[in-house]
């Protein structure tokens, strides 16, 4: 599908890859701009870097970036929350089917789905069917093969974290669309095991860097890489693929548990055909412009022509179900959310509890100091972010939260 791209060139250097940014009307911090330039300076990156409107400074690579590479892969660009992404389903429920007080439903979901980090965010005992699900999917066997090669990857959390939320910006929401139809939407990834895998290979890439003779300047050790043909390259691809598959299964298991809690407390309902489950923090091999590339989406969603995706706002703001337009300039990608406008520490220092409560007054959610760093003021305007990428996606449904569970 031909589209008129509305990007601007953020950087075009004589010795680096161009950077195309969909950033009209949204802030771009100078540190993030410099980080993008560092990535673009690598000789195996290209043909260009695509920057989404939710862009902000990240670790290793800039959040809200699409980084194609030739013959190399950067583990820190993928990060440690491998396969993090979104899932959403539309139900046959209407707003009138929801109780006036949603506090009991929120508590029920929080009991059914462990939330937060640490032991409290894990199943106390392995839920029925989890082991069977893992075995039938092949996830157990694949992980054992990875651990056999790399014995420092030790984890006993796989079974106890499948179907759990985690913390930070992960969430479960009940939403209403423009026709007051009830949706369930959630955000999570590969949990502790994905973190272990990501951290391990990031460190191995740094170790390999110490033995490389580079013919170019590497501006940041977090851009350490594996080259195609090296054993660690293949091992990382195998491990990151496992974590991405596990993340998808995690969202499916969590969604099933949320829907089960809803069935206990709400009128009978069914699921409609519209459902989405998409990564926004991952790497995979794709063909663009007739060339095989390894495409890392660090806070970006695949938006091929006709493909459905999810772009969430923040607590208390709108979210969107979108359909991709297949824009080649963005490597068929769009933003993964609103994007932070301030760091977590800055948010805790500048946003008051009363401001947070006012911004989330219409949502049944936590209103304590522990989620101040997730308050809407910590994020960019989702309206501005959506306006900056009208050539990348079209809006299918606009969702508004009525209930939000945070870890």
From TrEMBL:
Q: What does the UniProt keyword field contain?
A: GTP-binding, Ligase, Manganese, Metal-binding, Nucleotide-binding, RNA repair
Reaction(s) this enzyme catalyzes, per UniProt: a 3'-end 3'-phospho-ribonucleotide-RNA + a 5'-end dephospho-ribonucleoside-RNA + GTP = a ribonucleotidyl-ribonucleotide-RNA + GMP + diphosphate
Its EC number is: 6.5.1.8
* Superkingdom of the source species: Bacteria
Name listed for the protein in its UniProt record = 3'-phosphate/5'-hydroxy nucleic acid ligase
Top-tier EC class:
ligase
| SUPFAM superfamilies hit by this protein | Hypothetical protein PH1602
Keyword Ligase tagged? yes
Keyword Nucleotide-binding assigned: yes
The protein's required cofactor(s) are namely: Mn(2+)
